[in-house]
Amino acid sequence: DSGVTQTPKHLITATGQRVTLRCSPRSGDLSVYWYQQSLDQGLQFLIHYYNGEERAKGNILERFSAQQFPDLHSELNLSSLELGDSALYFCASSVDYWWEGLTDTQYFGPGTRLTVL
Amino acid sequence: TQLLEQSPQFLSIQEGENLTVYCNSSSVFSSLQWYRQEPGEGPVLLVTVVTGGEVKKLKRLTFQFGDARKDSSLHITAAQPGDTGLYLCAGLSLDNAGNMLTFGGGTRLMVKP
Questions:
Q1: B105 vs A: CB within 8 A
Q2: What is the pLDDT tens value at each position of chain A, 117 positions in all?
Q3: Which pairs from B61-67 meet CB under 8 Å and 24+ separation?
Q4: Does B42 contact A at CB distance below 8 Å?
Q5: Size of interface A-B (CB pairs under 8 A)
Q6: Choosing among A34, A43, A57, A97, which should be mutated to test the B contact, i.e. which has the most B CBs within 10 A?
């Protein structure tokens, strides 16, 4: 158990719909990261938040958005869903102090499996 | 765009054999990490290598970071069925904007008893 929790574990929805995935980081971790894992694209970085502020963006579609709340939990919102959005979505958290940057460990949650029909 | 190429993609071996997984990039990363992922779970960090030429050992696993910090390898000695899983390398890009991990495509290892 990494200490990172994600809900829901599974989500089945239809094309065009909107869903929200939730992540609670490990106690004390200020950074939250979102990743998408699909069979054809592998594990891809989407976005990084640190203490409520967006810090880095990867290959995140404009239909996707995220935020980190004052209690440090994070939500990933996916809208206008397409079949190709079906994937595993992982959240990770880390302490992310600057002087630990190079060896900062990201702890991954168990993921949310999204199926778009 | 920074890319990490992992090889082989799939590896099926008998218990007791040795194997090496390679991770190559055309770019330099601040550090390189190796993860193992089991079905239904998120990746778990095995090791981080930072310095060019660095070698780290974790029981039967040996990790090496290339001198130019663009490539890495994972060597498993006397593989066991419990080593079965997806092995991922990831390059860490660290700048003032934030941390970003770029993952390789993964190597799916199956160790048969």
A1: yes
A2: 889 999 999 999 999 999 999 999 999 899 999 999 998 888 999 999 999 999 888 889 999 999 999 999 999 999 999 999 999 999 999 987 555 556 678 899 999 999 999
A3: B63/B34, B65/B32
A4: yes
A5: 69
A6: A43
